[in-house]
Amino acid sequence: MQKKSWKFGTREVVYSAIGAALYAILSLATNWIQLPSAGNVSFRPAVVIPMFFGVVFGPIVGFIAGFLGNIISDLIAGYGLWFWWDIGNGLIGMIPGLIAVWMTTYRAFKDILWADIFSALGVLIGMGLASISEMWVSGADISTVIYANFIPAIAPDLINGLILLPILMVAYAAIVKRSGR
Amino acid sequence: MLVTWRYRLRNGLMERFDPRARWIFSLAFLFSVTLFWDARFLVFFFIIAFVWYFSSRAKWKETHRGWYLIGFILFTMIVVNTIITGGGAGGVVPPGGHLVWPEGGTIPLVNWNFHFGLTWERLWFAICQVLRISGISAIFLIIPYTMDPRVYGVTFHGLGLPDSFAYSMELAFRYVPTLARDFGTTFDAQRARGYEIERVKGGLIKQVARIAPLIVPVTMNSILTGEDVTNAMDLRCFGQGPRTWLYKLTFHWQDYALIAFSFILLAGGIVTNVAFHFGGFWVPQFWLKLAGV
């Protein structure tokens, strides 16, 4: 069956919801993980979820997983609503989703390479937009935006996404092969 | 792992409004306040925001965590950006200005002279930032405490979102406790098999990869569950026609009033700022008198 990139049927509705809930839960559950070798930076491994759901199920699913997942995570933590950061997280899922139709086995080197490239692009664009929004919302200048928002946001997202995404794709390939989907 | 929503019924004034009207007001407020840097307008928005916030009857004990985060963000923005760095304050504050310490200072013992470029104008801009960010935060921080998670789906459907998107939102809220439970089970099972997330060793790549035993099983299980849910929904003809919702939302007179107010706020802000060019950064005379100007 030929894949359609922008389809949003029942399957996509369900996986959007699952992706969003998973991103929220894993964000809350793993946000405390510190990696001492990286200078006591707090990582967010859950960021791989919108990337993965985008690559597998398409850009709309990826966007909702990131956008809504971030909203739910902030709602549960009591941090309120940060609109532009939610959009940024949505883009982290949507941009890798643009190549969902190119995927073949999910474990082929070419699939993983393209997924990583577009995930990195998604992080740069998504977190770039969210960071720049601070200029017109909070009045921050460009150097604060870059050093206080952009770099601290993209560094853990890139590291987690590029390492964990291939692992999830290989695991998913095994499920697809076993279940014949 | 237990996950609970922060919402509970408080019988506050805010809860008498329809959630759709509340979202319209919140978004109108956000777009309106970002049009202004004049403190006279920002004080007006600040007062509206906190009247709205206190109408929720949420207690400090419940919301303090969110306010600590906002405090940290404000500290970063204001102390680091506006006060310490020589940044142009978002292109809002004109260059130059009146220095707070025009003679500079000397560090004792080492006798190093330094000149701090902080101006009275940037200090006033920092006050404007506090007013603006606090107002926006008050409007949006209170949402999870005062809006029932069960009505998010029907609310966004009522705001014009397609059924599939609105239902996706509702389903996501429904899945949160289930996946939290699955994560807890997976975590306990892995720990019973000797998995210790606190003691990861090796380089950066290896350390991040060690988180996979937590994320992969939960993700794959939820994908397999999703196939069953998809089949169940398809069998019940999901998406074949307009969907009905369990909860029904109805506008009352106060909701129309709030929507009208939101429209006036946004339209008024746009006309004031764009047509009459009011609302730009302004420093009051009494503040400049402190500078001895």
List the helices and strands and how they pair.
The complex is a heterodimer of chains A (181) and B (293).
Chain A (H helix, E strand, L loop, with lengths): L9 H21 L3 E2 L5 E2 L5 H10 L1 H19 L5 H15 L11 H29 L4 H38 L2
Antiparallel strand pairs in A: 1-2
Helix pairs in contact in A: 1-2, 1-3, 2-3, 2-4, 2-6, 3-4, 4-5, 5-6
Chain B lengths: L18 H15 L5 H16 L5 H25 L20 E3 L4 E3 L5 H22 L1 H4 L5 H7 L4 H30 L11 H6 L2 H24 L17 H23 L9 H6 L3
Antiparallel strand pairs in B: 1-2
Helix pairs in contact in B: 1-4, 1-10, 2-4, 3-4, 6-7, 7-9
The biggest beta sheet of chain A, please? 2 strands, antiparallel
Order of helices and strands of chain A: HEEHHHHH
How many H/I helical runs of chain B?
Answer: 11
Distance between the termini of chain A: 10 Å
Compute the number of strand runs of chain A.
2
Low-confidence stretches of chain B: none
Task: Supply the number of helical segments of chain A.
Answer: 6
How much strand content do the residues of chain B show? under 5%
Assembly state here? heterodimer
Mean pLDDT across all amino acids of chain B = 84
Rg over CA atoms of chain A: 16 Å
How large, in whole angstroms, is the Cα Rg of chain B? 26 Å
Let me know the largest β-sheet of chain B: 2 strands, antiparallel
